[in-house]
Amino acid sequence: MEQHHAVVIGAGIGGLTAAAALHHQGWTVTVLERAAALAPVGAGIALAPNALRALDTIGLGDDIRALSAWQGDGGVRAPGGRWLSRTDSRAAARRFGGPLVLLHRATLIDLLLSRLPAGTLRTGSPATPAEAGGTGRPALVTTPTGEIGADLVVAADGIASPARRALFPGHPQPAYAGFTTWRMVVPGPDRPFAPHETWGRGMMWGSQPLKDGRVYAYAGAVVPAGGRAPDERAELLRRFGDWHHPVPDILAAADPATVLRHDVHTMAVPLPAYHRGRTALLGDAAHAMPPSLGQGGNQAVEDAVVLAHRLAAPGATVPDALAAYTRDRLPRTTDVTRRSARAARLSTLGSRPGVALRNTVLTAAGLLAPGLGLRALDGIADWRPPTHPYAA
Hints:
The chain is an alpha/beta fold. The protein has helices spanning 13-24, 49-56, 61-65, 89-96, 105-113, 162-167, 232-240, 247-253, 284-287, 296-311, 318-347, 352-368, and strands at 5-9, 28-32, 44-47, 73-77, 83-88, 101-104, 121-122, 128-131, 139-143, 146-150, 152-155, 175-187, 196-199, 203-209, 214-221, 260-266, 275-276, 279-281. The longest helix is centred in the C-terminal third of the chain and has 30 residues, at 318-347.
């Protein structure tokens, strides 16, 4: 059999899933990562049933389902603790065909790396596309040690993607979404709590238990772009310290050095395509979105398995497979990005009348139609990976 070679730029979740999916299809893969090492960071990720089914295609879905910690109810609360809406994990699993799993990003990275041969990953290797390639000519990437040619280049190099700028130099870059986020993983508090998001006025907080007893916590606030505090934990205490349990306990347990802060950017103007020649964009590099539906990483996982699926089609050339990948993924991710932006606006409303109306509607809807909040993921979390012959 002809041996194909792919270069993946970026060793995040999308890049490593693409590498594992391509390796599963018989490709030789090289992953180039700018960072000197894949150091674990203090953040979690929520994998919805759509991403778990995608990971089933490389044999990882059940390993991750075993890490599910959400067994009861959860929902949305007000800063004083009142429940605005409730969601049951069993109802969610029935609706979408499986659980929602919260886990540490480092755990997922390790599982993905376990599916790759030794030597696949090269850290300390920044890379950018030099030539997109095409029919009869390879794609080329530039690295500190010279150019590398490949049958396929997958650029999964994040929101600030140099690859995207190289492939689509005139296209608008991701825009500031209007709010910043903080993330941390801390030891669990002594008193139990139900998973929740809490929506205040121009601010939101989330507390999600992990299987190992720790808690993944995240927060957001409508602030000008580029802001930074000398002590981000102190900034969180100022904003959220008087909110309901377990928020104060989580902040008390947080190590200031591990609190991550990032401004949120979104691809407000979709790209015309997710490929050029033999080079494909994937994940945040292609469709950065607000985290409000928790789908950023999930969509990157979907991208990866659909890309590998298209490349495995009998008789498909790489350029033709990438054109099909764009047709598959561009409409879906554009829709998910827009829905995520709408959810972000709802959770970070800043006007008092708007917040009061939102909370009243959520409470009434929860009483009249329990589980209504799950509908936000209809058409997203129920996605299934393609099979041959492909059906969109």
